[in-house]
Specification:
alpha+beta; five-stranded mixed β-sheet; 34% helix
Length: 704
Amino acid sequence: MAGVIRRLDEAVVNRIAAGEVIQRPANAIKEMIENCLDAKSTNIQVTVKEGGLKMIQIQDNGTGIRKEDMEIVCERFTTSKLQTFEDLSSIATYGFRGEALASISHVAHVTITTKTADAKCAYRASYSDGRPKAPPKPCAGNQGTQITVEDLFYNITTRRKALKNPSEEYSKIVEVVSRYAIHNSGKSFTVKKQGELVADVKTLPNATILDNIRVVFGVNVSRELIEVGCEDQKLAFKLYGYVSNANYSVKKCILILFINHRLVESTALKKAIETVYAAYLPKNTHPFLYLSLEIAPHNIDVNVHPTKHEVHFLHEDCIIESIQKHVESKLLGSNSSRTYFTQTLLPGLPASTSDLKASGPSPSHEAGERVYAHQMVRTDSKAQKLDAFLQPIAKAPPASSSSSSSSSSSAPSAARPSGGATGACGSAELGDEEMLDALAEVEPKEAEKMETSAVGAEAEAGGEAEGEGEGEAAPRKRPRVNKEEELTAGATPKRRVIKLTSVRELREEVTEKNHKGLQEMLQNLAFVGCVNPRWSLVQHHTKLYLLNTSKLSEELFYQILIYDFGNFGVLRLSSPAPLYELAMLALDSEESGWSEDDGPKEGLAEFIVDFLRKKTEMLEDYFSVEIDGEGNLTGLPLLLDRYVPAMEGLPMFILRLATEVNWENEKDCFRDFSRECARFYSVRKEYTLDSDTQPQAPGDEWVA
């Protein structure tokens, strides 16, 4: 019996059509970004939760949607860019069918908040199956449109289960936004996960195409690019873009192709250009390509695919052949020089016989040996330190027998410039046992010898010395060099010897908490990169470690304050900072915890000023904190060269000096002050946000 043909319900038709247009979260974001660009937006922000399946929010500063149009904005085939079919032959916008928002509303919950330039307020409405759930309601909002898409594919369980990897979907979203950000220079794009402080992609409104490529793909790509551009009046097309030269290659071809400013794919063009590069690149490697092709609108058909990622145009073979010849001519002109990277030995480090054998032809019995992944160690040219190129200043050998023993221990470390030195500035290398034995010595000279090795020692809570400070051999303010050791290029004037019992006990406390495993890791790590302002990634041997930069930097500055006690430089403020104003700013913040029971703020601020002025002499002598006679802060301690703490924390630092430091006991006073100062100098996430998204905090007007 023949089947009965029935007319499908409208809801079923719309849901089927939506599944063709919106195949995954990245398609929904692509459609909405194109709507933002059609609305003349210059700032587009994308926020994603669980790979876009839970929530997608996109906000722009475009022209907005009129309140009268919000009733039909999510219905199919409603658009402001097309009126007749003939208009398709000269279409110059991204959208033209009016299916994007309609398709999204049939497979997700959509909320639109929009405001036009002439409207007095914004309007918000929620949509389901293409229709608003209620009339638009007035609300507060900026000019432009904010679209929130929640629970994508909630009514298509098969599609939802197929997209079960949020990380993979988020990477595809970042890829789409990155490509549009590269092409649309002069517009700012931001994409990040919900709840994250740092965006995964962020381009600036005044950046060029090359700047955006550098932000997205890195400096290694951007410095190897060749600008291409050609025009053909007969074929009515114009090409502009950047392609990689013969010195750069990747395992997979990266082609970013825009035709009439629309992100598309072209297999024929990709194969044609890769054929050109086959003569220049090593086997199984591919180029990086960014091409923007503008073709006369009447020669192109954009209505050939539901997601519009394919287009057809006239004279396709001739245009591709012309582009192929132009790219080849550019490569021929840039092939005069080639760059090859080789691994070289550090200065002063002899090559072992095993290394020489490894680089030469292998014997037949070693041919079958295989190096496994867990045995490999990361090597990078960036890991080479500048200390390797600093040669020590020659000095006559000491005459006494006692000094000869000390110089014999320091001479090997001078001969080995970098690899594994414990000090940041070429001090004598001490083992863990020797460092602990040195603590028993009473002489200040012996105590100073172990100070450099002691920094970087406390365990458990997140670390001692910052990984970058020890592993990367960051320059310290005053390298500690004994008189009996060889002088290096970084030698500084004589230090003031501090013999206070309290300071010695604080140093011993740090040494007693020394964790040998952590100390060795921080001394010999390789810095990989910053995950975000709070976390850093380092490698030690074959393992990766995630370091808490805030805790590491706080412990680093604490130990600098203890071991450099009384030997700090001064960090001058650009203009004196009145202590009274700083105290008032701190009391006005929620962090201070001030309440009316504490008394009036003005009285507390005056008390803080008078209290700190009484401590001026001690603060200046021991910690280089300078306060003038009028109660103005003029100087702070210089703990690291070329490092200035975030001045946003200065008001709270002044308040805590008066309230959190035990000024009655000498040892407690030095410990509490060092802890508060280290907290102020540390890298804190609340002061490391992007400058354009962070409100001005108290203390911004003082600069060191």
